[in-house]
């Protein structure tokens, strides 16, 4: 069953051209579930938010990036599941390939679901605690009711000790604009050319 999770991921990519890892599910973990956020400059810049689940990374494209202000409701479009090996991918997807453009590892760490993830996904409200270098505290993913073909969700910060008001949150993403792995900016990664960064 787990192999089916990555069917769409593998179908969209030519691994003879792109350095992205070929899809392969891992054994399902119960603790120390991982997350990663990758800043991705494709047709438009966005933040790929990924949560480990069923041995793959469940993924959402957050168009404006995460916000620590609970008043912000950030659109998060559900995308295809990714292989867990993608957590270490930083580099440039070549032109004419799906998602062509630079990819930065913006944050990574662990996450803890408040309840059974499958149950929450079915109900359309995923509540979780996250522990990363930049993302911390309690967050929510809430599925929107829409006639859009896309599966649209909202990423919202919970009101906890990590939450910020609008003024405090202003400029957060502009300040935090480098890779937590290599310290590079998205421009640095683009200039390095197609392929995965050897040091990642």
UniProtKB/TrEMBL annotation:
Transmembrane segments: none annotated. It comes from the Bacteria. It holds the Pfam family LigD_N. Residues 38-143 form the DNA ligase D 3'-phosphoesterase domain. NCBIfam families: LigD_PE_dom. PANTHER family: DNA LIGASE D 3'-PHOSPHOESTERASE DOMAIN-CONTAINING PROTEIN (PTHR39465:SF1), DNA LIGASE D, 3'-PHOSPHOESTERASE DOMAIN (PTHR39465). This is Bifunctional non-homologous end joining protein LigD. It comes from Nitrosomonas communis.
């Amino acid at each position: 069953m787990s192999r089916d999770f990555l069917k769409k991921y593998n179908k969209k990519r030519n691994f003879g051209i792109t350095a992205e890892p070929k899809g392969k599910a891992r054994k399902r973990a119960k603790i120390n579930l991982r997350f990663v956020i990758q800043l991705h400059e494709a047709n438009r810049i966005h933040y790929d938010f990924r949560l480990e689940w069923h041995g793959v990374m469940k993924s959402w494209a957050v168009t404006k990036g995460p916000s620590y202000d609970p008043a912000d409701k950030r659109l998060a479009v559900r995308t295809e599941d990714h292989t867990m090996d993608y957590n270490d991918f930083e580099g440039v997807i070549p032109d004419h390939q799906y998602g062509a453009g630079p990819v930065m590892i913006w944050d990574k760490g662990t996450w803890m679901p408040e309840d059974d993830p499958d149950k929450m996904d079915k109900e359309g409200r995923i509540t979780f605690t996250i522990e990363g270098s930049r993302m911390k505290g309690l967050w929510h993913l809430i599925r929107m009711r829409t006639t859009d073909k896309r599966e649209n969700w909202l990423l919202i910060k919970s009101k906890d000790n990590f939450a910020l008001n609008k003024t405090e949150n202003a400029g957060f993403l502009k300040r935090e604009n480098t890779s937590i792995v290599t310290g590079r900016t998205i421009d640095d990664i683009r200039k390095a050319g197609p392929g995965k960064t050897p040091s990642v």
